[in-house]
Amino acid sequence: MSKKRRLHSPDLKAKVGLEALKGIEPIHAIAARFAVHPVQVSQWKKEAAERLPEVFARKADQNAQEAKEREKELFEEIGRLKMELEWLKKKAGELER
Predict the structure, then answer these.
(1) Helix, strand, coil percent values for the chain (each to nearest 5)
(2) Which residue range forms the structural domain that includes residue 24?
(3) Quick one: what percent of the chain has pLDDT higher than 90?
(4) Which of 13, 30, 84, 95 has the lowest CB atom count within 10 Å?
(5) How confident is the model over 21-74, as pLDDT tens digits?
(6) Does residue 39 sit within a domain?
(7) What total number of domains does the chain contain?
(8) Cβ(68)–Cβ(76) below 8 Å
């Protein structure tokens, strides 16, 4: 009878991978502390090292995209407000007469 396969959360994987990247403790000590196999710790360390640059690159791109969309919305709103202001000035001028 085989053991049931354990599923680890992404948070645990990230925590273990970062601990391994720090290099303060040996991999077997980290594995014992988190109750996982040392080979698994090495794999998560490798994956964290490979994917870490993506995280920072994607966030900057995403923030730039969001800023452009927000800027577009704000310019559209400014245009609408200018048109409303001109219309109100015109109507106020007609009422004074």
Answers:
(1) 80, 0, 20
(2) 10-96
(3) 66
(4) 95
(5) 999 999 999 999 999 999 999 999 999 999 888 877 766 677 788 899 999 999
(6) yes
(7) 1
(8) no
